[in-house]
Amino acid sequence: MPVVNRIADMSTEMTEWRQHLHTIPELGLECHQTAAFVAERLREFGVDAVHEGIAKTGIVAIIEGRGAGPTIGLRADMDALPMTEETGVEYASKHPGKMHACGHDGHTAMLLGAAKYLTETRNFAGRVALIFQPAEEFGGGGEVMVREGIMEKFEISQVYAIHNAPGKDFGKFHTTPGPIMAAADTFHIHVTGKGGHAARPFDAIDPVVAACSIVQALQTIVSRNHNTKDTLVVSTTQIHTGTTDNVIPETAYINGTVRTFDKEVQAMVVKRMEEIVAGQAASFGLKAELTFEFGYPPTVNDAEKAAFAAEVAADVAGAAGVDDRVTPVMGAEDFSYMLEARPGAYLMLGQGDTAGVHHPKYNFNDEIAPIGASFFARIVERAQPVAGA
Prior knowledge:
Blueprint: H1 5-8, H2 11-23, H3 32-45, E1 49-54, E2 58-64, E3 71-77, H4 104-121, E4 127-133, H5 141-147, H6 150-153, E5 156-165, E6 173-174, E7 178-181, E8 183-192, E9 196-197, H7 207-225, E10 232-241, E11 247-248, E12 251-260, H8 263-284, E13 287-293, E14 299-301, H9 303-317, E15 322-323, H10 336-341, E16 344-350, H11 369-383
Parallel strand pairs: 3-4, 3-5, 5-16, 6-15
Antiparallel strand pairs: 1-2, 2-4, 6-16, 7-14, 8-12, 8-13, 9-11, 10-12
C-alpha cells in the first residue's frame, strides 16, 4: 500500500491516539475530553492556530502552507454512541453505556496523523483547516459548525471527509459523484380514539385497528406512489398502544423513518403521509396527527471534487483500490451540511471483514489509519501545490 512514508512511520502513534480515544467515548456536543486531547496534540505538532469551542466542543485548526492560496477543509467526527461495548479489548470504553461503535475515534486519529505530517512538511500553498466535529450521530454538529460560520470565517473553499467501511475490501476507497448517502427524516403519528371494554368494541373507537391500517397504507407510498427510478425507503419502526388484553386503549403511537435522495421525492412522501393519515382517521372516525421532522439532508458529492478525490485515492491505494461509482447507501451523515455549504467529497475506506458499525462488537481497524491519513495529506498537496514545485 503506497502510503506516505512519513505517515507510515506514525502508525504506532496513530494507534495509540485512537485506542486512547476509544477508552473515553463521549456523546453529542459533549466531547470535552476528546476535544482536549485533540487540541493538546495539535499544539504539540505546531499548527498555526487552534480555535476551540465551536459547536460547543468542536475545533478548527489552521496550518499555513507556503505562499498564498485557498483554504481546504478536512473533517473528522469525534462523537460516540450510547451503547454498551462488547469487544473485550484491553482499551475498551471506560464510560459505561457509551462506545465508539462507528469508528469516529479512528477518523480523528487519521486526521491527527495528517495534521502532524502537514505541519512538518507544509508542502502546499494556502491553508488547511482541520475540522474536528462533535455530534455527528445525534445533534447535527456539522450543521451547527456551518451555522456558526466556519466556512466564512476560515475562508474554506472545498471540504473532504472519510468514513471507515466494515465489510468492504481492506484499504479500498469508495465514492461517487452526486448523492452518496440519504436524507434521514422522522415521522410521528399520534392516534386518538375512544377507549372501552374489549368485549364491547362497538362502544369504543379502536385506535389499534386504525394504527395498523395507517401502517399498511404507508407502505403504498413506496409501492405505488414513487417513480421506480428513484430510491426511497419508508420504514415504520414503532407502534405503541394498549396495556392489557381486555381493554381497548384510547391512543396509539406510530414512529418511523423516511430516507430519500431527492427533495421532490421527499415532498411527495410528506404530502402522501398527510393524506393517508387524514383519510384513515376519517374512515375510522377518530383523530390522527402527523408530525414530520426533517433530519440530515442527503450527502451529495460535487461531481468534479468526487472525481478529483478518486484520483488522489488512486495515488494512495492504486487504481484497483478505488471504486468511483459506488451505489449510494440509505444511511445518513451530517457532513451533508458541509457539502451544502462548499463543494467537496465524502469517501468510504474499507477496513475488511469486521463487525459492522453500530454493533457492540465493532472496533476500528487501526491498520487503515495510515491509508486514510495519507489520503488527507495527498489531497491537500494535489489541490494546492506550491508554485514552481
